[in-house]
Amino acid sequence: MRDNCAIGATFLRFFRRFWAINEMNESDRYALGTRTVRRVGYGAMQLAGPGVFGPPKDRQGALAVLREAVASGVDHIDTSDYYGPHVTNQLIREALHPYPHHLVIVTKLGARRGQDGSWNPAFSAEDLRSGVHDNLRNLRLDALDVVNLRIMFGHQPTEGSIGAQLAVLAELQRQGLVRHIGLSNVTAKQVAEGRALAKIVCVQNHYNLAHRHDEALIDGLAAAGIAYVPFFPLGGFTPLQSTALSDVAKALGVTPMQVALAWLLQRAPNLLLIPGTSSVEHLRQNLAAADLKLPRDAVTKLDQIATGQPTAA
User: Fold this and answer.
1) 83 tagged catalytic
2) Catalytic residue among 83, 99, 207, 228
3) What is the DSSP letter of 143?
4) Can you tell me the distance from the alpha carbon of 105 to that of 139, in angstroms, rounded to the nearest whole number?
5) Contacts of 108 (CB under 8 A, 6+ apart)
6) Mean pLDDT of the chain
7) What pLDDT sits at residue 148?
């Protein structure tokens, strides 16, 4: 009888813990197409070599990061076949194929790499079709979950019609090769044009604590139930550095990068994060940011970083 009671108590503790984890996960998820994903995912760009070109210095380390990400609950991985090129997709395939049923792999089109590692526009109809097939082949998939059309009319979002490019993706979607369409490096006007032509499930633009030009766009997308995925959430090739950021992190006993990610999660419910790293340790730190709740005074202090205005001590 005593043994049965002990077993029962152990089961009850397990059930309560399992239920609590599920409750936490459900409150920390957002729609991405027809799926819902955890709001902290993983960006695979840094797994390629220097300048996102060529193979990684530590191939086994790169594979370990991908496996650790999925083992830790990541269900949203961002990649592209022009990372490397081909490198990150091939690493993802080697590390994770056959893929877990819950994993959403988001890729993008619109660029190609030169022999010198340069980033060049590639959004002709043929470029886009071959890009889809390159992603399918190197990821070993029959259909791509989400494809972001990256617009490269300029380095920053630049006005211009995206109708011709979207028409190609829509046709590939009708053929069953693409399930959902997103946009990247776009203006609010281009998002409106895109939504008039196709169902857009996400927008991926440059946004972080210090780079906040998309405030109105984020709020508009949230109202429409569309995910916003900030690239360079930690500053990209120039990591975020701020006295205010460091002070908040020190006060909370966490890293500045964890604070930067937590701020994004609290900015709006439709933000899905894809911080990248080639380190298992940094991956774990990034994922832990999902559990960090910033107090109001910290948020107020961090909000001033983009404006450069000092905050009261």
Assistant:
1) yes
2) 83
3) S
4) 9
5) 78, 80, 147, 148, 149, 150, 182, 184, 204
6) 90
7) 98
